[in-house]
Design goal:
Blueprint lengths: L1 H11 L2 E6 L6 H4 L4 H4 L26 H14 L3 E6 L8 H17 L3 E6 L3 H7 L8 H17 L6 E2 L2 E6 L9 H5 L8 E5 L7 E5 L7 H16 L4 E3 L1 E2 L7 H4 L14 H11 L5 E4 L20 H9 L6 H16 L4 H15 L3 H11 L3
Parallel strand pairs: 1-2, 1-10, 2-3, 3-5, 5-6, 6-7, 7-8, 9-10
Antiparallel strand pairs: 4-5
Helix pairs in contact: 4-5, 4-12, 4-13, 11-12, 13-14, 14-15
Length: 376
């Protein structure tokens, strides 16, 4: 019996989480088009978006419950285990409070789906908070400790939070501001201490290892070679998180934001198949897909007009998901019906029951219920 249990665990493979950006604002929901749809360049009212790709959901809002439900259900039915969330802290500055609110909505939805979550903290926010007068530079570490205490109290204790050896996993996109030793001070008082992962390389005594991310400088071949460099270096760490990604094709140059980066080619889906396969075989307990929906950098696996459900179907196959490509169409069909029947309370009630079926992992029953709507 013990041997069969060990075999089943080994076959299960690593937990796969997808990096998600909860920062999109749309005029129908939030009253304005947020920067991440426009980059102060495009006009979504005229069909222009700051991206080379077009989401099947349209230009959505990360605070729209039906949108978030649809996205999480797509992840679940693709076989993905959870999300890593790009998070800017709790202080109200720029759109950070919006991102924080949307993060909380996303976490509630992820938990409803029985999935995991982890935070990727962006400490690049700290210089902006200092410049914006939120606190002086000499108090930055103290303020960072407050943020960590908030995370520890509100998220680390959540059973749905990603854990490694009973320690909550925390990631930082960098660090870009805090020094290596600052993190030890900022984690003081947290029990248990987080399993802390920095970007690309293990940085500082507080980190147990690092997570990888697509590096487009040098183009496709060089980006793939950098995966090997990460995995070789990671052998000396306690913990690491390899990355899978479909492409990198940013909109920054077109928007005038920066000179932009080199392109990592999609290669008709081959880049994603290769990177996900390599990440799954790396022997790490967790894999991160970069990303679900960074439309500005073109790294998303969320369904698009250009690629349809291709990348999610690839995910299903490589993760040996129990769900089917046909199942992936159900959340989008539900979303369309919800929007088409926005004022119909009776229909919304029926659709809510279909949503419950999908969150419970019952696509067959949900499909039957959707078909019955056309006969009622």
């Amino acid at each position: 019996m013990l041997l069969s249990l060990i075999a089943s665990l080994s076959l299960a493979g690593p937990l796969v989480l997808v990096h998600t950006m909860p920062w999109y604002e749309s005029k129908p929901v939030s009253g304005k088009w947020g920067w991440h749809w426009t980059m102060n360049k495009t006009d979504p009212d005229n069909g222009e978006l700051a991206t080379h790709y077009r989401p099947l959901l349209g230009a959505y809002d990360s605070n729209d419950p039906q949108t978030v439900d649809c996205q999480v259900l797509l992840m679940k039915l693709a076989g993905i285990d959870g999300v890593t969330i790009d998070w800017y802290g709790t202080v109200d500055h720029f759109d950070y409070a919006v991102i924080h609110r949307n993060t909380q909505r996303l976490i509630r939805t992820v938990k409803r789906a029985g999935m995991k979550f982890a935070i990727v903290y962006e400490d690049q926010t700290v210089p902006n908070l200092i410049k914006g007068g939120k606190f002086p530079a000499e108090r930055a570490v103290e303020e960072g400790a407050k943020v960590m205490q908030w995370v520890g109290k509100n998220w680390f204790r959540d059973p749905a939070h990603l854990r490694w050896k009973d320690r909550p996993v925390l990631m930082v996109f960098g660090p870009q501001y805090y020094k290596e030793d600052d993190w030890t001070r900022m984690f003081a008082g947290l029990d248990p201490q987080p399993a802390f992962l920095t970007l690309h390389h293990r940085k500082g005594p507080a980190a147990v290892g690092a997570f990888d991310w697509p590096l487009p400088q040098g183009g496709t071949d060089e980006a793939l070679r950098k995966i090997d460099r990460f995995q070789n270096e990671a052998k000396g760490w306690t913990l690491n998180m390899p990355v899978a990604f479909p492409r990198f094709h940013d909109y920054y140059k077109e928007a005038g934001v920066s000179e932009g980066y080199d392109t990592v080619e999609d290669r008709e889906g081959k880049t994603y198949r290769e990177t996900l396969t390599r990440a799954l075989r790396a022997g790490a307990p967790f894999v991160q897909i970069a990303t679900w929906n960074d439309w500005g950098e073109g790294t998303g696996i969320e369904p698009t007009q250009e690629f349809g459900f291709r990348d999610l179907e690839t995910t299903q196959r490589l993760l040996n998901s129990k769900y089917t490509p046909a199942d992936l169409r159900l959340p989008l069909r539900l979303y369309e019906l919800q929007k088409q029947n926005a004022g119909n309370r009776a229909m919304q009630s029926k659709l809510a029951r279909i949503s419950d079926l999908l969150f419970k992992g019952k696509p067959k029953e949900a499909r039957v219920s959707i078909r019955s709507l056309g006969r009622s």
